[in-house]
Structures are given as structure tokens and as C-alpha cells.
Amino acid sequence: MPTASQVLVLNCGSSSLKFAVIDPKSGVEALTGIGDGLGQSEPVISWQVQGDKHTVSLPDKASHTTVIQFLVDEILHPRPQLLHCLVAVGHRVVHGGEKFSRSVLIDGEVTDAIRDCATLAPLHNPPALLGIEAARKAFPALAQVAVFDTAFHQSMPRHAFIYALPYNLYRDHGIRRYGMHGTSHRYVTERTAELLNLPVDGVNVISAHLGNGASITAIRNGCSVDTSMGLTPLEGLVMGTRSGDVDPGILMHLGCRFDYSLKEVNDLLNRKSGLLGISELSNDCRALEKAAGDGHQGAWLALDIFSYRLAKYIAAYHAPLKQVDALVFTGGIGENSSLIRGKVLDHLEGLGFQVDPERNLQMRSGAEGTITRADSALALVIPTNEEWVIARDAANLVPGDHQNHNGGNRE
Is the pTM of this model over 0.85? Predict the structure, then answer.
């Protein structure tokens, strides 16, 4: 069990709550877990401590508050040596709009701002607020810190984030590109600088976070200067069930010609498209790779389109950088799919990328390193660690009078 200061990290999704207790200096996780199926029938909570795994059923329709109460009463309190190491709670918040360019201590003004941004992330900001409220009640003596997915992208120049729409839509309603996955892109940027022995403010990276949600970011001198996701997570790359970029005229065509409602269009673009929609089989890249190997043409087409769209974005993001120190693959697909990485790099041969097949195959299951030949432009695989970034930011923002290990004070 840990003896140093630890941070409790909470990541609230629409029907899940991931949690971890992390040493902000080393990144070592003393506890990890998830409450899943929240608000539904048969929700469960699973966790792991020192290699011991546990799973417990929760009451039907259990909420995020239920999970936090279980975490406190059934997991942390029986382990006082873990509970009393806590110095802060770090909350992942998807959308901070233009209000936040860095992580902040949570107060009433911050929660109001998160609530104001809920229309931009309706599936994520409201659950985050539930988690914040429950954590403040459960840990009144601990600093609570919000870490925003959008914050890293607030360095983008106006020509990168303004849409070619009537300007008043931005001025009056905040309609612009915000970007997501900022915590992940920030982590791999810092790690790339470390691996290349460069200062963070001197490194130029194209970071591809590839999972069921996927985004790519151009990073110049350590700062985001362009990113593929926009006002919402729908824009940009092909994803598990999201379409990414499409001709907006298609949406009007669906409405006028086929009587699609706005709700049906939203469902089509967010839940029925992407890898799932193209393959008509699955949104899981692993399942598609297996099916493709068995000759499933829809699976092959989905993987081809995914790889080609990604390669086009990578090529485009050379423009704002001029010099690229490394292309980095991260996220579940980026860290584990040698097939996708190889296909993408083959598309980028004209930009000097030459995949090393043996190295590429070795980079999976948490491995980190180079996947290109010695005479090639550099491509790396770096496993992301968003939770560690959240823990570090939270620990750095702990006020002086919160430095004592007082996580168990729940009077």
C-alpha cells in the first residue's frame, strides 16, 4: 500500500464511473475500478487492489453517487492506509468551452461554468457534475480539481478554430472548434519530448489518439495548433460508431428526401456510422481485423477507410508544423493495432515514413517505442495515461493547508 500522497481520479461517463488512486509523482496506481451500467438494470462495480480483483452487483438504476458512496464505504474505509494518503480528487471534465485553458480548483463559479457548457457535451458534463457533487460530500476536506479535455486545445489560433459560418454564431453562441482528448494529447507530447531529449516547448508532434473515439492533433512547440474534433466529438476521423467528416449536404438530403428527423440524423451519425456502419459488423477494431483475415469484405473496407482518412489528416497536419519531430500513435487502437499503423504509414511514404514491420508488430499491450526504420521519418507508439495527468494536475493545485493526509475526514 502507498505511503506517499495519492490522488483519487474520477472519470464520469454517461453510464459509467471509472476511478483510480494514483501516486502523482510516479503514476503508480494503488487502486483501479469502474462502476458500469449506471442508470440501467444490473449495474456492477469492479475494482482491483494489489492484484486482487473484485466485482459486486449494484442496485438497479444505481447512480454515480451510489458508486462513490460504495467506493468510500466498502473499498476505501476498510483500507485506511490508502484512504488517509489522499490529498485531492481529480475530475475529468470533457468540455470547458473557452472558459478554461488549464486545470482549476473547483468552486461554485467553476461548477456553474461546467453546467453552462453542458449543451456542448450533454452526455459527459452532467455526469461529471454529479461526480463532483458526490465527491465534495464524501471528501469535504480534500481539494477538488477539474481537468478539462478541451483545455489543451485553447492554444489553437483563430484561423484553426473558427468555422466558415456567419461570425455571429461564434461571437454570440460560442460555435467553434474546441477539440477533445486534450489530456491524452498533452501526455504523449510531454512523453515524446522526454524520449527525444527535447524541451516540451520545443517539440513538434502529430498525435493520433485512436480508439472508439478518435482524434488527431498538430502540436507545435508543445502547444496544440489544430485538432480534428470540433464543437462536438463527431467531427474529424472515422471512429467506432461516429462518421467523422461528412458533406453537410447529406444531412439536408436525408431530411428532405427521406424524412429523417434531427434525432434520427444524430443517432445515425453518432451511433450507427463509422467502423460499425461501413462494416455492418462491429465497431471493435479487433473483431474487424479478425473478420478481415477471414475474408469479410465489409471489415476490410472499414479498416481501409479508417486508415486512409487518418493518413490524410496526418499529411494535412504537416502544414501547420513545418517540422515534425514525431508521429505518435496512442489510444486502444493506436497502441495495439499493428495492421492500422502499417496501413497508415504505407500511405505516408511520400512524407518519408517507412514502417519497420518487426518493430511495429512488437508494439502492443503497453509497449512503447519506435515503429519506423532508422532512415525514416520517426513514428512512435506511446501508451497514453490520462489518469496520471489528472493526478499530477490535482496534486499541483492542492493548497498548502490541504497537504496533510486528511482524506478520511468525513465528519
Answer: yes
